[in-house]
Structure to design on (1005 residues):
């Protein structure tokens, strides 16, 4: 069995669930959720058994468009994990979400994530821009539905419309960029583009134009400035599980494509390398600032996490702009993958707490956190860890990734970007701590204990433990990620 | 497993246990006591444990990351042992004096701060040294924001100011450390191991320009954490607002982290940078700001907690003076003063907290004549106040004298340079300390009592923490060699580097 079979299985399972719902409307939500979660869990287990084989490869008919390097395997695993967590969150949120749909049914909620997951997994392995585009659209179109899922809520409708319009626009820009790149380099595969850009006779201006449009289109997907303005509204309006999915899954998928694109564009002798690097540096620094400075003034936690997600995207873009660092021995792709892997538990944990509060009939404002320390010490501690990790405090998962980014910036002496990153991180201290202080604030709006089911308790504990373990002992995670580095180093040495 | 790991983990485990529902006071005081015994034992055994070793005693290392090489490495030299002793003493006093009616979070926060401080002082890996300090900052800020004195609006604003200052300070520090580690990288390998970095610094020192730039960045980063003038303005409101145990632990112990970092990282790794004239002169200006300007500011304070908080900022100037001189006498004096100041300010904040609990105000002009009703309390306060002024026989005196003498002679140079002028200026600080402390003492304890404002002597069990701290002040003041004997060669190697750096700098100037 190959990894491709698993992806196909997921996509087919998604379609089957959709059909079941259409032709057997009486089927219970529980069954659907169980099928969907069970299917994903099975896929995850199969994936780990398959991916651990050295010889795992793709079937011949997809090999022209996909490559199974370690970066691809890593992102495929990440997609499966986040999909599983999101499906579980959807199950937890189902009682309140069903109030916002027209007929109280939630079936697409359990089938669409599977299709998204398959799309993200394909995207991770794609080696040419057309495959990237098809996979990306599979993900984005599914998200159009998911974002506007709570149809009876005005905020959700607004979010859906904004996401649809801006998403369609960015898709257009992306295709435009791909066309220019093809025109300039005569190739659609990353290798071909990289090779063509290394030749001095390739004309520079069309290539630059294509690169700019390409980066703009991808910038929308990963919420980079100046294409970030949709994020807070969409994060606020979308149902909590969908927001989680957007902020981790969609972002990770966007970044694997961005990593490969940037690597192709700024390859060693690329004629447009310096320009693209400069562009990315400016975009990255701007993204950090436009993410973290407005976050200071937010009252809604979902909007806060939206802005925080923008600023995290900024750090990742800065890491990509630096390229590989010789003195630290780290590739930019490795840093981005590490960062995203640590970003997963903290973001999911923060949204899990929001979901629990929501199920308990509370809002999504910072002041709804008040008294959480008394109402549920477990959730309070877990959320504290998640927020501290998002702020990038040492001994939590979020620190190492930021440290690597800072290392890269210092190593390449990009002082301006470093200053912006520092300002962003300092602002991060402020707005995350505001939430942490609210948790332990004594004047709580209510003192009754929160109702927590076993699954939430276990989930919160596990995620919190993961955050601390990754923060204190990051060696195993780095080991899984340094493989591509060593391979790449060996390849370049030959 | 090294005993030092137990020292670091014990408070963290205690905090976790209290969070899980263990009886707060019993667990908390019990652990703190146990830890003090453990640290005392380690200090007692230190001579034999470190005999024949060039570096640290009680070492152990657990690798957590390969590249950059980071390991949870602990080890103690004389400096680390003295500061661990300070942490253990203040932690015990701080948790002991917490009123039984306070919620468990007071104990949890105190132990987290203590654990972070132990970790920072005992780590021999730059990453963990930095990380443990951050760990201790979070509970400090949460406690100021949620349980501090004053109304909601005010304490929140104080907490934010502190968060922003310390957050930015730590980020500058982090940037400096990252640069430092990068400069010492070899062949695509980075290391955070202090011993490896030291070896590299000895073998191939960095170019002088790089050294002084990094040293300056680190001075600003560490300096913010120690409230070095003009980056000090967070400190006084934070200490005056913080709940008593947090004020004791932060001003007494955690603040010393910045000074410790300068001695531990900057002096050995960047000697030429730290002792180059530009960094030195900037530091001298800043520390004189601490001593003279903050001295005047302190004299003007109208409330006891403000007096103590500002005096704590001011006294950091002396310690910086000791570092800036870099002679062995001055460095030893600086470490001794770090210890002494930690004990004395913790004692004063503890007593002031008790007073606030009983009377509800600390306004100097509303208080008076307390001495007649509470003789024990008065004597204990006198110990702290007189130590803080620098009265002979109490610990601070020994430290200050060593700093002044060591700075004045400055490697036997006969020239009367900026450092010597700074010493002359700094000496006036002693006079100012006497002015504000004696004035505060007089207006609180002497004269006639105001109606309704009385304190009673603490009960026997409540006296223990304060008597402990006062006794330590007396013992360390009369027999400072007990502490100073713990240093072996660890400061001597530093001063060698400093003297070479200073002499090469003077040569460069005279040529």
């Amino acid at each position: 069995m190959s990894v491709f079979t698993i992806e196909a299985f997921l996509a087919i399972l998604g379609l089957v669930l959709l059909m079941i719902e259409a032709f057997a409307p009486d089927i219970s939500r529980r069954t659907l959720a169980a099928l969907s979660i069970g299917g994903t869990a099975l896929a995850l287990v199969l994936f780990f058994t398959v991916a651990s084989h050295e010889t795992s490869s793709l079937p011949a008919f997809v090999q022209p468009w996909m490559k199974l390097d370690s970066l691809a395997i890593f992102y495929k695993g990440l997609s499966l994990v986040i999909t599983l967590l999101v499906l579980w969150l959807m199950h937890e949120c189902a009682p309140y979400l069903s109030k916002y749909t027209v007929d109280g049914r939630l079936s697409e909620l359990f089938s669409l994530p599977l299709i998204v997951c398959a799309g993200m997994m394909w995207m991770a392995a794609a080696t040419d821009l057309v495959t990237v585009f098809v996979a990306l659209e599979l993900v984005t179109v599914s998200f159009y539905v998911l974002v506007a899922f709570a149809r009876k809520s005005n905020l959700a409708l607004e979010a859906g419309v904004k996401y649809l319009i801006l998403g369609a626009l960015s898709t257009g820009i992306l295709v435009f960029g791909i066309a220019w790149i093809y025109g300039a380099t005569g190739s659609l595969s990353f290798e071909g583009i990289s090779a063509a850009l290394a030749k001095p006779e390739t004309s520079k201006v069309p290539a630059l134009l294509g690169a700019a449009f390409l980066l703009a289109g991808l910038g929308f997907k990963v919420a980079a400035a100046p294409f970030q303005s949709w994020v807070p509204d969409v994060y606020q309006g979308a149902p909590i599980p969908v927001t989680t999915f957007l902020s981790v899954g969609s972002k990770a998928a966007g970044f694997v494509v961005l990593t490969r694109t940037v690597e192709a564009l700024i390859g060693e002798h690329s004629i447009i390398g310096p320009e693209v690097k400069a562009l990315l540096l400016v975009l990255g620094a701007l993204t950090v600032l436009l993410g973290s400075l407005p976050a200071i003034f937010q009252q809604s936690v979902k909007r806060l996490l939206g802005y925080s997600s923008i600023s995290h995207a900024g750090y990742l873009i800065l890491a990509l702009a630096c390229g590989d660092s010789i003195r630290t021995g780290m590739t930019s792709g490795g840093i981005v993958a590490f960062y995203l892997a640590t970003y997963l538990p903290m973001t999911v944990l923060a949204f899990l707490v929001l979901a629990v509060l929501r199920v308990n009939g509370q809002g999504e404002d910072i002041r709804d956190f008040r008294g959480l320390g008394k109402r549920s010490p477990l959730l309070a501690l877990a959320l504290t860890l998640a927020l501290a990790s998002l702020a990038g405090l040492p001994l939590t998962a979020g620190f190492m990734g930021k440290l690597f980014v800072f290392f890269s910036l210092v190593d390449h002496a990009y002082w301006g970007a470093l200053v912006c990153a520092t300002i962003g991180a300092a602002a991060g201290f402020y707005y995350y701590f505001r939430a942490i202080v609210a948790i332990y604030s004594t004047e709580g709006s209510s003192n009754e204990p929160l109702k927590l089911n076993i699954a939430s308790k276990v989930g919160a504990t596990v995620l919190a433990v993961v955050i601390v373990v990754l923060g204190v002992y990051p060696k195993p995670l780095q080991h899984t990620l340094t493989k591509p580095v060593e391979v790449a180093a060996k390849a370049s040495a030959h | 497993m090294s005993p030092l790991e137990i020292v670091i983990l014990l408070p963290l485990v205690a905090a976790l246990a209290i969070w899980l529902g263990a009886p707060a006071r019993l667990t908390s005081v019990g652990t703190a006591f146990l830890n003090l015994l453990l640290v005392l034992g380690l200090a007692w055994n230190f001579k034999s444990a470190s005999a024949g070793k060039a570096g640290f005693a009680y070492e152990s290392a657990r690798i957590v990351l390969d590249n950059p090489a980071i390991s949870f490495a602990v080890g103690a030299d004389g400096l680390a042992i003295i500061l661990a002793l300070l942490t253990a003493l203040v932690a015990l006093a701080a948790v002991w004096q917490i009123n039984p009616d306070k919620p468990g979070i007071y104990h949890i926060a105190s132990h987290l701060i203590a654990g972070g401080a132990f970790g920072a002082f005992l780590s021999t890996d730059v990453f963990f040294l930095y990380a443990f300090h951050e760990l201790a900052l979070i509970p400090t800020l949460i406690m100021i924001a949620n349980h501090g004195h004053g109304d909601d609006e005010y304490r929140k604003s104080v907490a934010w100011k502190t968060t922003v200052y310390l957050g930015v300070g730590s980020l500058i520090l982090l940037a400096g450390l990252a640069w430092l580690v990068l400069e010492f990288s070899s062949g695509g390998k980075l290391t955070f191991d202090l011993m490896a970095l030291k070896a590299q610094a000895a073998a191939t020192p960095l170019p002088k320009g790089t050294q002084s730039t990094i040293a300056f960045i680190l001075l600003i980063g560490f300096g913010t954490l120690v409230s070095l003038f003009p980056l000090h303005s967070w400190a006084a409101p934070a200490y005056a607002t913080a709940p008593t145990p947090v004020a004791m632990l932060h001003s007494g112990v955690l603040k010393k982290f910045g000074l410790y970092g300068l001695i531990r990282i900057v002096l050995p790794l960047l000697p030429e940078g730290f002792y180059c004239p530009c960094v030195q002169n900037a530091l001298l200006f800043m520390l004189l700001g601490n001593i003279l300007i903050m001295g005047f500011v302190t004299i003007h304070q109208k409330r006891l907690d403000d007096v103590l908080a500002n005096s704590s900022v001011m006294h950091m100037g002396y310690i910086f003076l000791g570092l800036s001189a870099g002679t062995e006498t001055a460095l030893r004096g600086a470490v001794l003063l770090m210890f002494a100041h930690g004990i004395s300010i913790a004692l004063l904040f503890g007593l002031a907290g008790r007073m606030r609990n009983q009377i509800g105000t600390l306004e100097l002009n509303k208080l008076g004549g307390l001495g007649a009703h509470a003789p024990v309390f008065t004597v204990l306060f006198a110990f702290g106040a007189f130590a803080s002024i620098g009265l002979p026989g109490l610990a601070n005196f020994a430290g200050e004298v060593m700093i002044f003498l060591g700075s004045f002679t400055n490697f036997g140079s006969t020239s009367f340079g900026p450092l010597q002028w700074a010493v002359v200026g700094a000496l006036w600080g002693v006079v100012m300390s006497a002015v504000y402390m004696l004035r505060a003492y007089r207006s609180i304890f002497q004269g006639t009592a105001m109606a309704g404002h009385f304190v009673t002597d603490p009960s026997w069990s409540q006296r223990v923490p304060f008597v402990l701290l006062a006794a330590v002040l007396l013992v360390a003041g009369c027999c400072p060699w007990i502490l100073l004997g713990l240093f072996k060669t660890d400061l001597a190697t530093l001063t060698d580097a400093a003297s070479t750096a200073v002499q090469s700098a003077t040569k460069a100037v005279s040529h």
Observations:
- The mean pLDDT of chain A is 86.
- Residues 154-185 of chain A form the longest helix (32 residues).
